[in-house]
Amino acid sequence: MSDSYFTIGKAEISEFRAKGSKFLGYGASVSSDEEVKSFLGSIVEIHPKATHHCYAWRMGGDGKQYRANDDGEPSGTAGKPILGQIDSKDLTNTMVIVVRYYGGTKLGVAGLIEAYKECTRELLDNAEKVEHIVQSHYVLSFDYELMNQAMRHVKSSKAKVLRQDYDNCCKLYVSIRQSEASQLEAALDQAYKLEYEFLHDV
User: Fold this and answer.
1) pTM for this one?
2) How many Cα atoms within 13 Å fall on the side-chain side of residue 110?
3) Fewest CB atoms within 10 A around its CB: which of 2, 25, 82, 129?
């Protein structure tokens, strides 16, 4: 299973015109419902008089969360082709909004699908792609005299120390690439008086 994925970085506005209608594409990296709502709200604020604000997004390292919205266009003619282009680029944590200003001439189902698809394709073709490495996080607990042993295991496994706490015992908060986490766990399982707890993947 892959422990990395690509999302969108910087994206310029794309534009597509068809029979007088103007389509403007916007893209952003999103990782929560709050970010989705904020991005959509910001575009609606910029284009309050647009006829439609259609969008799609896919989220999560496994890409299982997604949504496509036609915002009043015929079903399947806007959100679905936008999502299709996100998927064709193998992106996640990515949202694309295509704003339409109606030009007075109906485009038909095929014309709408083509317009939303092409506007999104141009946006994503020119957007920056950012690779994200999924990290596993752990906390290691041990007596102070075992600090050197703990640090050896951390360094040899290429884990990164995020924080150190010293109270009744020492605690190291570390992160490591998800695909390499099992090696760290195996080393710690054999270590003398070293305890660890898996926290989460990010």
Assistant:
1) 0.81
2) 0
3) 2
Print burial letters for 159-172: b (CB count within 10 Å at least 16), e (below 16): beeeeeeeeeebbb
For residues 159 and 174, give the distance between their C-alpha atoms in angstroms, rounded to a whole number: 6
Class of domain 4-132: alpha beta
Report helix angle 108-126 to 79-88, nearest 10.
40
Alpha-carbon distance 59 to 79, whole Å? 15
Give the Cα separation of 175 and 192 in Å (integer): 21
pLDDT in tens, 29-59: 999 999 999 999 999 999 999 999 999 999 9
Q: With beta carbons less than 8 A apart as the criterion, state whether 37 and 54 touch.
A: no
Residue length of the chain = 202
Q: Encode pLDDT of 141-193 as tens digits.
A: 988 888 888 888 888 888 999 999 887 789 999 999 998 999 889 888 887 77
Domain boundaries, the chain: 4-132, 134-201
**How is domain 134-201 classified at the CATH fold level?**
Alpha-Beta Plaits (3.30.70)
CB 81 within 8 A of CB 75: no
